[in-house]
Specification:
Elements: H1 7-10, E1 33-37, H2 45-57, E2 70-74, E3 89-90, H3 109-114, H4 125-131, H5 135-139
């Protein structure tokens, strides 16, 4: 089950894999996030199923306290409706600043929510360097 954060609140908070780790203590108002951006990997649905099956069967896998940390994976868009993961939330790698309309290749917040997701990456360094996205864009 995904976290309780809404897409609209996530739009205003960029996620960066280069951010300094958050200290964990009982006075924090935010839950630390461990996120894995899969970028364009694995390449096929079969490979994803093999990866998730291996994770589920690994007796040595790490565990975490879901009350203390949110664990989220961000697979490629074509896999979003296929992946169900034990204990980890699933998120989109990007969300459009537009609503529904003629925006080829974009994923709207409404579409992401309709898939049952409540996480998305915004302000990623690749989106900034390759597509010129700015802080203002991510705040919209």
């Amino acid at each position: 089950e995904c976290g309780s954060r809404s897409i609209s609140s996530l739009r205003t908070h960029g996620f960066s894999p280069h951010s300094a780790p958050l200290p964990v203590d009982s006075t924090m108002s935010r839950t630390p996030i461990v996120g894995g951006n899969w970028k364009c990997n694995p390449a096929t649905q079969k490979d994803v199923r093999a990866l998730l099956n291996a994770w589920a069967q690994d007796d040595n896998k790490s565990s975490w306290d879901a009350e203390k940390v949110d664990v989220v994976v961000f697979p490629p868009a074509f896999l979003l409706s296929e992946i169900k993961s034990e204990g980890m939330a699933i998120g989109a790698q990007n969300v459009s600043k537009t609503g529904p309309g003629a925006f080829t290749g974009e994923w709207t917040a409404e579409s992401i929510v309709d898939l049952g997701l409540s996480w998305t990456l915004v302000g990623h360094s690749e989106r900034r360097s390759k597509y010129g996205e700015t802080d203002e864009d991510t705040a919209e």
